[in-house]
Design goal:
The chain has three domains: about 170 residues, Aldehyde oxidase/xanthine dehydrogenase, molybdopterin binding domain (Aldehyde Oxidoreductase, domain 4, 2-Layer Sandwich), CATH 3.30.365; about 150 residues, Aldehyde oxidase/xanthine dehydrogenase, molybdopterin binding domain (Aldehyde Oxidoreductase, domain 4); about 280 residues, 2-Layer Sandwich (Aldehyde Oxidoreductase, domain 4). It has about 700 residues and is an alpha+beta fold.
């Protein structure tokens, strides 16, 4: 069937998704995994609702190469759009097949049947038959390509009162990969230098091998792994190894400076996203440059993985976002067949992008294979902050014109950035896993991959949602910069929306217009207008309200990837003694909200993370290497700095669901930047918007 949901086109066999077990439970399998966003709970609720069973009758398996469908990465706010849609289709198909079997058993028409708690009955009749009694009569080893589209009820189990399935384990102790334990499990730690271009020049392992508890010292090229019976023994051994190892730099780092001037030293390729014909004669023209530095995932729990090698097969437990993609990359790095590796997802700390989870899995596998024991490998805080892939540094140059009526007449924009997607992939060349590039027989990273518009990578949300006259928009794609960069929540949307919606405020000021009214005057999309109007009501926005004396409010707005959820954010700041984010209001249209509380959680989390990026976070380096190796050198938003947040979800129950996890990042950054400008009368364009940057802007006198 050509109109199958995208996840089903590659995984059409019903029995890959659902199994009717003997124990009065139904196992549903999804390729999407739990990263703290609640999507696995929502997918289970979709399956239960469509099947007509209770949620406690569902056993969900998420992200396991042994049994789950391959749905690619859990990324891009696509779990509901892809994974949820596929699960609804599959569950409705299974319900339909079982209803036909039940009708034959009960001697009625399938149209007369209702199903509740897994039992098929007819109105006014007590006799019924359940899924488990029908299991032998229904063949699920069938391809959806050979079956008609099902009739879907749209039901969701426990709708309105859904509770996260993963929280009990996480709150009581055994919910994270760090809590796992295997028989005879040892602990591994890896020694890496502080400079990304350093390679091992000399290392004598004799002293380390003689230390208490050390089972093995694994040396392969520039990879040094130490396996010990206890984690504290491994840590002591790594500390000793650090005093012995000699490193040699193969490259130098450019100067670290605000605005990322080193971007201009890299060879780039200009990709025109839009170059519209037309002639404009603006009344006035305004130019500005916006930027963000490299930013880290800064997960509270460092990356962790467990590997077990039995001589024939490798078993890995990982908090990766793509078990199948990691399996393919590891098979290439280890030079073994892919079918000899099985990977099961286990929850780790929230990351929302390509952090060190995949890299640490290869670390654990290398040590487990060499030591002959199961190995849990955990990165240190310094490893996490200096060796995980970073969110790419970016710069956005915008020139825009206004006509005499206060309308935007043209918009010229260039987005310059290193890559945002270097995840592990199934490739025939290269391996995008850290240790693979440090082996005695090293692999180059896999070729860079870019997604086209409207999704985009660095150019995600680079095309304004507003009517801005003649548009010329360019993405200057760069190779890897001085530090390794990859996917981090919202990719380029964080900086692009910050730039676009900061420019919108700057143009509104020049046009003498209120920022909300100016946006509405340049916005034709009715759902977008509704979101803007909703956040204005929610926040009590007053047109023309003056700022100053350190008090300000600002707005930011976008439709994520130009095809996902609409989100508008109003931020209220107080700069009287420090930069304090006081209140944040958000309105979101994510289509049908399957799990409303989960949507609110996602928006709140996105706001807090984006606020931390925008106000505080920056990776710094010197000639000696990455300097941000602890919370002292890489501060994040603290609990005491968390703003009060109010979220309104627009009722779109009749629309398809849209992912909400990443839609708040860009609008939050823009809202904060605009609120600071409203509070002090000057514009700060280079993130993070720290007190030092604000003081510099005040001294420079930029009141644009």
């Amino acid at each position: 069937m050509s109109d199958l949901p995208i996840s089903l086109q590659a995984n059409p066999m019903l029995d890959r998704w659902i199994a009717i077990e003997e124990s009065s439970r139904i196992t549903v399998r999804t390729g999407k995994v739990e990263l703290g966003q609640g999507s696995v709970t929502a997918i289970a609720a979709i399956a239960a609702g469509e099947l007509g069973v209770r949620l406690d009758q569902i056993e969900i398996v998420a992200g396991d190469t042994r049994s789950s469908p391959n749905e690619g990465y859990t990324a891009g706010s696509l779990s509901m759009e892809h994974g949820g849609q596929a699960m609804r289709w599959v569950a409705a198909t299974v319900r339909g097949l079982c209803a036909e079997a039940a009708a034959a058993v009960l001697g009625v028409s399938a149209d007369e049947l209702i199903v509740a708690d897994g039992v098929f009955t007819t109105l006014g009749r007590n006799a019924g038959v359940d899924y488990w009694a029908l299991a032998g009569n229904v063949d699920l080893k069938r391809s959806l390509h050979d079956l008609p589209a099902p009739v879907m009820t749209g039901a969701v189990a426990d709708a309105g009162a859904l509770k996260r399935l993963d929280l009990t384990g996480k709150l009581t102790g055994p919910g994270f990969i760090h809590d796992m334990s295997l028989p005879c499990m040892h602990f591994g730690r890896v020694l890496r230098p502080s400079h990304p271009g350093a390679r091992l020049a000399a290392f004598d392992p004799a002293t380390v091998k003689a230390m208490p508890g050390v089972r093995a010292v694994v040396i392969d090229g520039s990879f040094i792994g130490i396996v010990a019976t206890r984690d504290e023994d491994a840590l002591k051994a790594v500390a000793m190894a650090a005093t012995i190892a000699k490193w040699q730099r193969s490259s130098d780092l450019p100067e670290d400076a605000p605005g990322n001037p080193w971007l201009d030293t890299l060879p780039g390729t200009d990709i025109e996203l839009l170059n519209e014909a037309g002639d404009d004669t603006p009344w006035q023209t305004h130019r500005a440059v916006y930027s963000r530095p490299y930013i880290a995932h800064a997960s509270i729990g460092p990356a962790c993985a467990i590997a077990q090698w039995n001589g024939e097969r490798l078993s890995v437990w990982s908090h990766t976002q793509g078990v199948f993609q990691l399996r393919a990359a590891m098979a290439r790095a280890l030079r073994i067949d892919e079918d000899r590796i099985e990977i099961a997802h286990r929850p780790g700390a929230g990351c929302y992008g390509h952090n060190g989870a995949d890299d640490v899995a290869l670390d654990a596998a290398l040590m487990a294979r060499a030591a002959g024991v199961p190995v849990m490998c955990q990165w240190s805080r310094a490893d996490e902050l200096s060796w995980s892939p970073f969110g790419a540094a970016m710069r956005v140059d915008i020139e825009a014109g206004l006509d005499r009526n206060g309308r935007i007449s043209h918009w010229h924009e260039t987005v310059t950035s290193p890559p945002h997607t270097t995840r592990p992939e199934a490739t025939t060349t290269g391996v995008s896993l850290l240790a693979a590039q440090h082996l005695a027989q090293p692999f180059d990273p896999a070729p860079l991959r870019f997604m086209g518009q409207p999704s985009g990578t660095a150019d995600r949300n680079a095309v304004p949602i507003y009517s801005v006259g003649r548009r010329h928009i360019v993405n200057r794609r760069l190779p890897q910069g001085p530090l390794r960069s990859s996917a981090l929540r919202s990719l380029g949307a964080h900086c692009n929306v910050f730039a676009i919606d900061s420019m919108m405020d700057e143009l509104a000021l020049r046009a003498g217009a209120d920022p909300v009214r100016f946006r509405l005057d340049h916005l034709d999309d009715p759902r977008g207008r509704a979101v803007l109007e909703a956040v204005a009501r929610l926040s009590g926005w007053v047109e023309g309200e003056p700022g100053g004396e350190g008090q300000g409010r600002g707005i930011g707005f976008a439709r994520y990837k130009s095809l996902g959820a609409w989100c508008a954010v109003v931020a209220v700041v107080d700069l009287t003694d420090k930069v304090r984010l006081d209140k944040v209001y958000a309105a979101v249209d994510c289509g049908r909200a399957i799990f409303p509380d989960g949507v609110v959680n996602q928006i709140e989390g996105g706001i807090i993370q984006a606020a931390s990026w925008t106000l505080k976070e920056a990776v710094h380096w010197s000639r000696e290497g990455v300097e941000t190796r602890s919370w002292d050198t890489y501060p994040i938003l603290s609990f005491s700095e968390t703003p009060r947040i109010a979220v309104e979800i627009l009722d779109r129950s009749g629309e398809p669901p849209l992912g909400a996890g990443e839609c708040a990042a860009g609008p939050t950054a823009a809202a904060i930047g605009n609120a600071i400008a409203h509070a002090i009368g000057v514009r700060v364009r280079h993130m993070p918007l720290t007190p030092q940057r604000i003081s510099e802007a005040i001294n420079d006198g930029d009141n644009s």
